Structures are given as structure tokens and as C-alpha cells.
Amino acid sequence: MKSSAKTKVAIIGGTGFETLFKDGERLSVETPYGNVSPLFTNEIENARVIFFPRHGPEHSIPPHKMNYRANIYALHKMGVKKILATNAVGAINPKFSPSDIVVPHDFVDFTKLRTTTFFDEALTVHVDLSQPYCPEIRQLLIRDSRKVELPVWDRAVLVCTEGPRFETPAEIRMFKRLGCDIVGMTGFPEVVLARELEMCYATICYVSNMAAGMQDRLNANEVSKVSMRILPKVEQVLTETIKSLSSEHEIKCSCGQALEDARFKK
For the chain, which domains are there? Predict the structure, then answer.
């Protein structure tokens, strides 16, 4: 690894992306919120990139058991300023199809048991989520998806459910009426925790299946098969975006000042 490389960008890999940096340097990080599963580091285009397999290297951590606070804090501790996440999702919007790429612009939280903030004690903080995902990184992901000729939807509402079970057809009908386009189990609370630590965060989702009630049945192997098929193209997108983030592109979003007016004052 070149000594000039800097740790500024991280990739959080979802289902199917566990071995993205399989030859990278393995790291262990302790946090006030507990230890995290191994992180890996490697260089992409002369930029030092941290890779975090969300479910662990062996896909052994289910979505409802993840220590989301420790995960995001570990990246913050490593000096990461920008996070590119990947998520496997089911399509609620009938216009979407398996293998489509979706870069969501908003989310709805239907989780139940997760700790969702770093500020759950004395200090009262209300971060602004008018634009939950970093608008500049979103545009880079959309641009770079088109560059590698991937079908990409540039606006979508992601609903996050608790898991680990799939949703019921009735739940999907409800989510559709609420205006949700895609459904997954891991996009929240990562996005909020990153904002609370003033980190840029955006996700590139790939549709692995149509949601419950929109196809005969759902199974985990189907999700894995689609992820293996789409993985090489998404890797290309991530590489192109990292090249931009580590070279000529200067992020001018407000993510890095998220706490300036967020603290409650008497």
C-alpha cells in the first residue's frame, strides 16, 4: 500500500458483496458500542478504501442482529468521510425489474428493535433529513451507473423492515400505498447514523426480486443468484465513483455540517 493513500471512502457491502476485497488487508476495530466484524482495506485508483461486509465475511449476521452503531462508528474512527453502501432490495414499484439498479432519494423506517441514534442520552440532537442521502454522491452513482450501461432508476423511496423474514403481500400493498418503491432490511439506521457523525452516505441498490405478492414466492437463493450476476457491474460503478471522490471532485454538500443547527438550545 502506498504511503500517500488516504482513508476517506468506505464501501458497505450488502448481500453478495462479502468478498469484494477478499485479498485486502484485514482490520479489527474496537468502538464504545462494541467490536465489529472484520473490515478490509485496499487501494482503488490510488485511494485507500475501507470495505465493510455488512453481514460479515461469511454472511453470518442477520439484519436484525447487526450492531449498526458500532459499524458506522468504526468507519468514523478510521477517518472515513464518505460511505458508498450497497443493498439488495425487492421491487414494490411494478416498473422495476430484477437486476435493475436503484439509487433511492428517500426512505421510510418500519424497523422495530434497532438503536437508531448516537444521541440517546442527555444531549438532545435533531439532525435534518430533508435530503437523507448525500445528494452529490447520489448523482455520481447515477452518472456512473449509466456510464457502465446499467439500467438505473434515479428516484425511489426505500422502506426498511426489521427482518429477517420477508414481508407479507399485505405489508407490501400497504407500503405501495405509502409511496414506497423498494423494500430492504438493512438501509436503516445506517443512513441516519452516518448523518449524525457528519459523514456523506448514499446507497446503490440492486433489485433482486419482486416483492411479496408480486411473484409466486420468495427465497434467499434467488437473491444470492441475482447479486452474483450484477456484482461485476456494480463494482465498476463503485470504482468510477471512488475515482471521482478521490480526485477532481470536491464535495460541497452540507452533510459535513449536519450538527451545526441540530442541537437543542433553551
Answer: 7-257 (3.40.50.1580)
